Structures are given as structure tokens and as C-alpha cells.
Amino acid sequence: MNDDGVVDERALRASLRLEADERPPRLDVATLRAAAESRTRLSLPLLLVGSLAFSILSLAAVATGLRLIVGVATFVASVDPVSAAVVALTRLAEQLDVVLVVATQPAVPIAILTCLVVAFYYEHYSHMEKTNA
Predict the structure, then answer these.
(1) What does the radius of gyration of the chain's CA atoms come to, in whole angstroms?
(2) What's the first-to-final CA gap in the chain, in angstroms?
(3) pTM of the predicted model as reported, rounded to 2 decimal places
(4) Whole-number Å distance between alpha carbons of 22 and 15
(5) Minimal CA–CA distance to 88: which of 103, 70, 76, 78?
(6) Half-sphere exposure for 124 (CA within 13 Å, toward CB)
(7) Among 35, 67, 121, 132, which lies 20 to 30 A Cα-Cα from 89?
């Protein structure tokens, strides 16, 4: 057996030892605690715009919810149950039509899924090659 490629274990361990100036600095707990406790100060205009946007979005959500509740209540109150069931069934059938088209003609969705899988594996293995290089 040829031992030219074999390196002495002691020499290998000595070469992997870090010098004093190469060692990473120790973590200072007091500095970390001070950094965690310090809070970044946001400017007053930024806080004002943020709270104004949040208020507007909250009011829009409440208004949309109330409008939906009123719409459903008037629909239920003004329509007899059989008519409401027929309308709901036809709207559901319209939405299911898209699913049925995909189920009967699956070539395009299968091609899209295949492209996604190939792209994922390509990115995964190209990243692995860069990491291993």
C-alpha cells in the first residue's frame, strides 16, 4: 500500500489549531443584554403614518364585514329557501367547472408541476454544488 497520501494525525491536528489572533472573540453577555434591551427609536412621522394606516385598514375590514353580514341577511330574508339553494348550487357548479376542466385535460397542470419540480431540483443541486465546491 502506498502511504504518500497519508498525513500524520498529530501534524494534521497541529495544522488545524488556530493561532491566538485567529480565534473568534468570546461572547460578552453584558453587551448582548444591553443590545437586546436597547430599543430603536422610530421617528414620530413614521409612527403617525403607521398608526393611521392601521386605523384605515381596521375600519375598512369592519366596514367590509358589516356589508357582508347585511348582504347575506337581506339575501336570506328576501329569497325563498329553494331559490337560494338553486342559486348557490349554480354558483358552486360554475366554480367546479374549472376543476373539472383540469381533471379532464390534465396536460397543462401536469406540465406546470413538472416544471416546478425540475426547477426546484435544479436550484437545490446547483446550490449543493456551490456549497461543496
Answers:
(1) 33
(2) 29
(3) 0.34
(4) 13
(5) 76
(6) 6
(7) 67
